[in-house]
Design goal:
This protein is of the alpha/beta class. Helices cover 25% and strands 29% of the residues. It has one domain: YbaK protein, CATH 3.90.960. A hairpin with a 5-residue loop joins β6 and β7. The chain is globular. The termini are far apart. The model has no long low-confidence stretch (mean pLDDT 92).
Length: 157
Amino acid sequence: MTVDQSTAEQTSRALAQAREYGIDAELISFDDYDSRGLDWDDVVRSLVLRRKAGEYLFALVPMGRRIAWPRLRAAAGTNKLHLPDEDEAFEATGYRRGTISPLGSTRAWPVYADILVPGRRIGIGSGVAGYGLWLDADALLSGLDAELADISDPAPA
């Protein structure tokens, strides 16, 4: 896949941090997922959540699942978590919603990953709309010092 200069610049933070952690990450257009045989069930959403003013965390939740709020709050040791609005999410991470990644975030917030994330290759946000980073989940979780917890439930059908 050919990546234009603008896309390359926008993903450079995420790719640079992946390289720093020794992670072999491949930038792939969402349009190419099906033709490359990639499974959408292996896409992991990166959500930024506010604990309190100025304090955030990342939750990594597989596609097709939703956050189990009580279990995530227990894992994070807090009574409240909130989804910030678009501007606040950008301020916290340097990424727009739909592109958020813990890799290359402007701040290194704590990461909580669902127990279904490890043990496979996954796609995560790359920092630019329409593209994902395809990488080894175990290497990502190790590099980010992520805490594993049962933080998701199946999404309703």
